[in-house]
Amino acid sequence: MIDETRFRGKIDPNDHVSVHRLSRSPAFYEATSEPDERGRIRSAYRGFRLDYFYATGEIQGKGSLQSFAQGSNVARFTAQEIKAACIDLASAVDLPPEQLQISRLEAGVNLPLAESPKEFLAGLMSHQKALFTATDPPSKATRPLLYNAYHTERRLKFYDKGEYNRLQGRPLSPDGPPHLLRYEIAYQRAKILQRLTGLPELTLANLYEPQVLEALANDLVKQWECTQRHQLMNYNGLSLAEATLLHVATDTAFWEAMRKTLPRSTYERNRSRAQALLQQRREPHLYDQVFARELNELLPSPEPVANVQK
């Protein structure tokens, strides 16, 4: 469930014992001892980029925790594996995991599919007030593979991971699913992680705790349910006015225009009715259950967290 992880730590740059231990750690053992023009010593270790700032003693790390543990991020990454990876990563810089604070994080789920997710991706519309935008296709791709919805503190991402891997020369295993859809949330600031988990600080020592993983899982479910996409609606038995409200319920641009022109009470009444109709009439999508199943497989709790209602 955990993918890209950014962390920070610090040692006393005047403490020669601490500096020597860091230089002999697995992550920095083969790094150059001379700082670059920015005053940092950079190292690459099992997919993580690690920087030690010579003057301040600050350590920064950025990389995929799942790839660090498994060599790639296409398989399931369970709670027990996350715990082992956090401990292993802290050992790589020879620091206690509680001293490595997480500043940014990506949490997500791989959805194994029998068919290509291209229609699902092309049908993504909005998340709350943010429109989904397609990223330019990578080289040799004939269509966009990645769609983002941007917010200040988080970014939602959906992408065709199976096709990405194929273009990078790392196709999915013939023994596994033929296609893979990746859904993830990139948390851009430490504060949102603190609010979600209820912790004053998220570190490599508590990232794998059950309550933390369940808080992230609950947010994945919540934001999945807030994602709007093109799909068939059930208009049976509705008046023309109600059918029209249902038809425009997911049209973010329409509601933004109405917000500027209608009286506030009229706007809120119609918007609320449109959202209620949407929840009542929206047909479930096959991916809803795939997402719920895969997410629950990643969690330590025997009680399912994901029970997507669409």
Number of helices: 11
Helix content range of the residues, please?
A: 25-40%
Biggest β-sheet: strands ordered side by side in the sheet: 2-3-4-1-5-11-10-9-8
**SS content category:** alpha+beta
Folded structure, characterized:
The protein is an alpha+beta fold. The chain has 2 domains: 2-228 and 285-298, no CATH class; 232-281, no CATH class. 36% of the residues lie in helices and 24% in strands. A 9-stranded antiparallel sheet has the order 2-3-4-1-5-11-10-9-8. It starts with a strand and ends in a 12-residue tail after the last helix. The model has no long low-confidence stretch (mean pLDDT 92).
Protein topology:
Layout: E1 2-10, H1 16-23, E2 40-45, E3 48-53, E4 58-64, H2 65-70, H3 79-92, E5 101-113, H4 118-122, E6 124-127, E7 130-131, E8 133-134, E9 146-150, E10 154-160, H5 161-167, E11 179-187, H6 190-197, H7 210-225, E12 227-229, H8 240-247, H9 252-261, H10 264-281, H11 286-298
Antiparallel strand pairs: 1-4, 1-5, 2-3, 3-4, 5-11, 6-7, 6-12, 8-9, 9-10, 10-11
Q: Which descriptors apply to this entry?
A:
elongated, nine-stranded antiparallel sheet, 310 residues, single chain, 2 domains, three-stranded antiparallel sheet, alpha+beta, 11 helices
